[in-house]
Amino acid sequence: MNWENFYKERYDATRKEKDLLHFQIGWIKGSLHNLETLIKSGDIKCDDYTMAKLNRIAYSLDEAVIASKRNEEEIDALIQANKEQAKA
After folding, report:
1. Structural contact between residues 51 and 39, judged by C-beta atoms closer than 8 angstroms
2. How many C-beta neighbours within 10 Å does residue 58 have?
3. Is the pTM of this model over 0.85?
4. Helix axes 6-41, 48-58, angle to 10 degrees
5. How many CA atoms lie within 13 A of 3 on its CB side?
6. CA–CA separation, 23 vs 2, rounded Å?
7. What integer pLDDT is reported at residue 4 of this predicted model?
8. Which of 19, 58, 59, 60 is buried most deeply by CB count within 10 Å?
């Protein structure tokens, strides 16, 4: 293994993956916005159950943001509890 370039190669790989994920999330945001527009316009006609599922999909990104923040807070609390336990 070439240790001289190890960190640069890892940084470049991480940056490339981040750029790819950034593009993908942008694409998904656009697609979910299009679905939301179709739902709000009334162009989609279906039963209440299916409409509820479509609404959940349309707003899934918002729910994911909320869930990820809650998850991050829970993980931070666990880390803090472990640090305090280790000190005791």
Report:
1. yes
2. 19
3. no
4. 150
5. 0
6. 31
7. 81
8. 58
**Tokens 């880390």 belong to residue:** 79
Q: Are 36 and 58 in contact (CB under 8 A)?
A: yes
Residues 6 or more apart in contact with residue 46 via CB below 8 angstroms: 54
* Neighbouring residues of 29: CB distance < 8 A, sequence distance ≥ 6: 61
Rounded Cα distance between 29 and 80, Å, is 34
Q: What is the pLDDT of residues 29-45, one digit of tens each?
A: 999 999 999 999 999 99
pLDDT at 88: 77
- CA–CA distance, 17 with 85 (Å, rounded to integer): 36
DSSP symbols for the chain: --TTSHHHHHHHHHHHHHHHHHHHHHHHHHHHHHHHHHHHHT-----HHHHHHHHHHHTHHHHHHHHHHHHHHHHHHHHHHHHHHHH-
